[in-house]
């Protein structure tokens, strides 16, 4: 308990002296708080501190905002340079990015072939690439054949849907005539033809 009492006594002794230094700094016009007391203590000790350029004229908030502003300008300029480079090198960067993604996706399969089947590195990579191409080609073939076989049913359903919309427009709350519907369809078709580019 003796050590705790000694620490408590030292803290108790330090508080009034620090409070007195803060009060003295306020009286001498150094401002409020710990920084002013520290400045007063440094001044009393005879230590010379370099003064910040313009610290008396520019408020702290304005200096802080200016500091963040130039940092943000540098970040925006760096991002603009990176985007400009990507735009200039897109013919190289896009295939490179695709290759990196494919390499990251296929690496676990290559490692599994090397570990479990004891394939050499080049044979494992070639096997995975060829297998991946076969898988993609098979998937595309399946999707395309399903789409082609379902296309007549899709056309029939979309035609029925268009007829239902036309019937609702003529018999529903809008009471449009067939001539108005034809004129609207012709206007939409001509607009699409002129704005196709």
Overall radius of gyration: 39 Å
Compressed to H and E, one letter per element, the order equals: HHHHHH
What characteristic shape results from the CA principal axes? extended
The overall strand count is 0
Sheet having the most strands:
none
- Global mean pLDDT: 83
So how many helices?
Answer: 6
Q: How far is it from the N-terminal to the C-terminal residue, by CA? A: 88 Å
- Which residues sit in consecutive blocks of at least 5 with pLDDT less than 50? none
Strand content: under 5%
State the helical fraction.
Answer: over 70%
Protein structure class: mainly alpha
Write up what this structure looks like.
The protein is an all-alpha fold and 197 residues long. The chain is 83% helix and 0% strand. The protein contains six helices and no strands. It has helices at 2-27, 33-45, 60-88, 90-116, 121-171, 178-194. The longest helix has 51 residues, at 121-171. It is extended and about 95 Å long. It starts with a helix and ends with a helix.
